[in-house]
Amino acid sequence: MAPLEPYEKVLIDTDFLDEDEDVHGQISCEKCHGGNPNAESMEKAHAGLIHDPTYPDPSKTCGECHAMDEGGHPEIAAKNKTNLHVTLAPFKSKIYLRANPDSCVRDKIDNAMGTNCSACHSSCGQCHVSRPKSVEGGFIEGHLFQKTPPVETNCTSCHGSRVGKEFHGENEGIPADVHHLKHGMACKECHTGDEMHGSGMSKEPFDRYEVANRAKCEDCHKIATSEKPEGDKKGKPLEHPTHIIHQAKVSCQVCHSVQYKNCFSCHVGKDKSGAPYFKTDPSTMDFKIGLRPKTTKERPEKYVTVRHIPVSPGLFDFYVKDALTNIDKAPTWKFATPHNIQLKTPQNETCLSCHGNNKLFLTKKDAESWEVKANKDVFVPLKPAPPERHSWLEQPELHLKKVDCLTCHDPSLKSPIKDCQQCHTKDSILLTKAEGAPKYSLKSWNFTNKELIERGNYVVGSNKIPALDLAGILLIILTFAGCAIHGTLRFISRRRK
Amino acid sequence: MDIVCRTSGAQNSFKLLLTFIAIFIFVSWNFPVFLHAEESSCVSCHTSIKKLLEITRTIEASKPKVEKPAESKGEG
What we know:
- The complex is a heterodimer.
- Chain A is built from 19 helices and five strands.
- Chain A is an alpha+beta fold.
- Chain A folds into two domains: 6-213 and 242-371, no CATH class; 386-434, no CATH class.
- In chain A, the strands form two sheets. Chain A has a three-stranded antiparallel sheet with strand order 3-4-5. Chain A has a two-stranded antiparallel ribbon with strand order 1-2.
- In chain A, α8 (151-158) crosses α9 (160-168).
- The longest helix of chain A is centred in the last third of the chain and has 31 residues, at 466-496.
- The model of chain A has no long low-confidence stretch (mean pLDDT 89).
- Chain B is mainly α.
- Chain B folds into two domains: 1-30; 31-61, no CATH class.
- Chain B is built from four helices and no strands.
- Chain B is rod-shaped, with a radius of gyration of 29 Å.
- The N and C termini of chain B lie far apart (92 Å).
- The model of chain B is unreliable at 1-5 and 31-38 (pLDDT under 50).
- Classes of the chains: A alpha+beta, B mainly alpha.
């Protein structure tokens, strides 16, 4: 996004002064921004000017009206103290976790973060009035307050490299998120104002995923039950049986996300003029499933998509050497929620697209030597391949190829079916329960389980025709009956003679 | 006759008063923003493209020339 021309950044739309257009225009400029409107020169008028009167504390500006809701609960400005868009608290806490405990080193890290990292914060004004300062600011629409910040100028000006490009399909060969592509949804549809203004928690969360009112897929998508669950009005109910099997074990993105961006090796510094800069290694597109080291009641899924974050041992080398001596205290492959959701993905094509497909899982091989310890709880211990796990079956490969997994791993049962006779029988469950099972079966005049054979399945005892069996039995009975009648008649005729 | 004259005089005064009130309401209803904007020197500059262009050009010209800063490389 190109920055605005200097004059455009500060040009006020006259509509802003119209009460019907924006009530904020009725407040005098100096009430929020300070300065002296009666001064004769621009320099004097701008003395003491506050560019963003809403950062860090909006209580004297926005807070005058937007402090509490009708019930006395913290509303908007009152949540500011623990709003992660403002405080960037988890960012700092994660760096501190990895940092050298020496206080001198910590001071230098603080300085580095203050110069290079902390500029990425937002504020009431940097969402609702102007572009964020980190992208050189400037009014969004002539100082008219925007109830919903525009996606392009505000949301993706900060969340652009990963989330923005994923959601809009700007990564080569990767389609846009189905919510955007098919349903034209914008950020606010999931990330509501309530979430954006913070949870109002008394304590700052250690991790951004701890925020209580964070957007969740389940807010709209519920598992289909006989009773229509709340929320189905908004999202498609989850009817496929695999949702029951995987719920609370596997995150939605594991099945419904595609390749996403991973970043590596960030180094920050200052140039000769003192301007901050950063350098990262080229990003890569990849898809990795890892383990979530700490699950919570709200997010119990153990298997999740993980993204490599750009932290590296030399991140702050420009400012201080050995800054991150505890780099192995936090993973560098981090729980992620890629924003490129698709209904059908390579990994949800069949069960075996994921189960046994080891390249999808994060292992030691995916990590640099310095980050192996940091990610030890994220690596997935690989399980034996499906044919090996099904070695108790006769011809496991054939079974895996021919039989739909859900036939035996029935989500409605506590444990999978292991009784051979459930399938290898005249009334095989393959005919009734399996996905795509035929609605009828001709058992009398055709081979038994003909339908299964036609579908390429093999069932023991399938090569017989019950009608022929019946005819044979009848023939034998008739033969015996004929013999008996013949014998009886001969016995009677001999006695008469 | 006197009574009639007095009555019409009172009516005229009343009509005049009503007119003043109507004008006052109209003015106060429609022009507070305008008056406020007129009074504010902030607004007079910040709503004028011409003035802002002149000012920002002057500011840019007066800024000391610095070496091109190191550019960030990669994705932030």
